[in-house]
Write a structure and sequence with these properties.
By secondary structure, the protein is an alpha+beta fold. The chain has three domains: about 1-70 and about 145-180, no CATH class; about 185-290; about 290-430, 2-Layer Sandwich (Heat Shock Protein 90), CATH 3.30.565.10. It has helices at about 10-20, 20-70, 75-90, 140-180, 200-250, 255-285, 295-310, 330-345, 395-405; strands spanning about 95-100, 105-110, 115-120, 120-125, 125-135, 295, 315-320, 325, 350-355, 360-365, 410-415, 420-430. The strands form three sheets. Strands 1, 2, 3, 4 and 5 form a five-stranded antiparallel sheet that branches. A five-stranded mixed sheet has the order 7-9-10-12-11. A two-stranded antiparallel sheet has the order 6-8. Strand 11 and strand 12 form a beta hairpin. Helix 2 packs antiparallel against helix 4 (about 140-180) and helix 8 (about 330-345) runs antiparallel to helix 9 (about 395-405). The longest helix is centred in the first third of the chain and has 52 residues, at about 20-70.
């Protein structure tokens, strides 16, 4: 799941970077490259400064030598000009010579396009007789900034490519593992051949994961086949038992004690048949074998009431749209468990209500019992908790109801009615709307 965006900008950035391995690797690699480049630049700058100080000292000596030579040939115009030409040619810069008042008296070299670096004054016998200026080309800062930007872009691209190269195989394995955990056992590693040359350990994990998913798929298929066979084998003798019970019931004469025992046997057979149905429904949820068909909860409720032998007038419908997308068999099982829970532990069914509003469809059963004890409604759908109506039932029926509702994108709820009895139901999104 993706991280939430709540918190400070730093927390949001941290959550974004930490959401994927490729982003984390990219951040670390890019940061390491930038730090390395900064250290190299700082070292180069420090060494340059040290070299500049030494070079400046040498340049100062050259300055003094040139100034002394100019002082010697100051009055010889030809010799002075030759000295300027020599200096300009060696330095490849413009050289300007000015008198004591600042007027230009001689020059050598091209026109200076930038600033002028003033040298020490030319002195003779302690008196200033002129100055010499040397043109220093201005630094092109735009090229420096362009070089820095290009360097950062290159580091960004290099870090991203390297992080993707490292993280992509691992993220592919993580994707397959997540799909397997969600029940999609047919998923396979994509680009498996590209893992082999440089990611042999990742390839081993990928192959192991593929073998594991195949084994799990085979085991689940065998379990489904065994479950289907067991359910058939169980329900066949159960059907025979019900037929035998009906035959004994019609034998004449029967004593009251015999009729009582026959009725008890029939109830036990029905209980076993119901338990088999719950086990099969639970297996379908475990194996994620849900159908996704348009289902009318009103039609399912009418069918369940008829099958349980309850009065159809118990059904109360509010709203026009009772259609949901789901598995009709499992939804019937949920409604049947709700009604059976009310009959067994709520002194009978008072009402089966189907409501549709605000993009939701509710199917709830209200019983005529004492209601839930304090704090019991919140635990009604926990396994082995019991129905909550002061009973010793194991509570697997309502637990299955909660699982069916969740598998259909809804929820199960329980509480007490306004006057008397408990209200237990499920809430599902219907096909023409979204949950509020």
């Amino acid at each position: 799941m993706a991280p939430t965006s709540a918190g400070t900008p730093y927390q949001r950035l941290r959550n974004y970077v930490g959401a994927r391995m490729q982003r984390r690797l990219f951040a670390w690699l890019f940061g390491a490259m930038v730090v390395t480049a900064a250290i190299a630049s700082a070292t180069s700058w420090t060494m340059g400064r040290l070299g500049t100080d030494a070079g400046r000292s040498r340049f100062d000596n050259v300055h003094r030598l040139v100034v002394r030579q100019l002082a010697v040939v100051w009055d010889d115009t030809k010799a002075r000009h030759e000295l300027l030409v020599t200096l300009s040619g060696e330095a490849e810069m413009l050289v300007e010579l000015r008198d004591a008042s600042g007027d230009l008296i001689d020059t050598a070299g091209s026109v200076c396009p930038a600033r002028v670096d003033a040298w020490p004054a030319v002195r003779r016998n302690g008196h200033k007789i002129g100055t010499i200026d040397l043109c220093v080309p201005a630094t092109n800062t735009s090229r420096i900034y362009l070089g820095l930007v290009l360097g950062l872009v290159f580091l960004w691209w290099g870090a991203g490519m390297f992080a993707r190269w490292i993280a992509q195989p691992l993220e592919e394995v993580a994707r397959v593992a997540e799909s397997v955990s969600l029940g999609n056992l047919d998923v396979r590693i994509e680009r498996a051949s590209s893992l082999a040359p440089w990611h042999r350990d990742v390839q081993l994990v990928a192959e192991t994961l593929a073998d594991m998913s195949s084994q799990v798929a085979r085991q689940l298929r065998e379990q489904r086949e065994m479950m289907a066979a067991v359910s058939h084998e169980l329900r066949t003798p159960l059907g025979h038992l019900r037929l035998l019970v009906e035959q004994f019931r019609h034998e004449d004469p029967l004593s009251d004690d015999q009729i009582k025992r026959i009725n008890q046997c029939e109830r036990e057979v029905l209980d076993i048949d119901g338990l088999v149905g719950e086990l099969l429904a639970n297996a379908r949820l475990e194996f994620r074998e849900l159908r996704h068909d348009p289902v009318s909860l009103v039609e399912q409720a009418i069918e369940v009431l008829e099958r349980l032998g309850l009065d159809p007038t118990l059904l109360d419908v509010e709203g026009d749209d009772d259609n949901v997308v789901g598995d009709a068999t499992l939804l019937q099982r949920a409604l049947s468990n709700l009604l059976d829970n009310a009959r067994r532990h709520g002194h009978g069914v008072k009402m089966l209500r189907i409501r549709s509003a605000s993009g939701l469809v509710r199917a709830e059963v209200e019983d005529d019992g004492p209601g839930f004890d304090e704090g019991a409604a919140e635990r009604a759908f926990e396994p082995f908790h019991g129905a909550g109506h002061r009973s010793d039932n194991l509570g697997l029926g309502l637990h299955l109801v909660g699982r069916i509702a969740k598998a259909h994108g809804g929820r199960a709820y329980a509480g007490n009615g306004l006057q008397r009895g408990a209200v237990v139901g499920i809430e599902l999104p219907h096909t023409s709307g979204k949950p509020a």
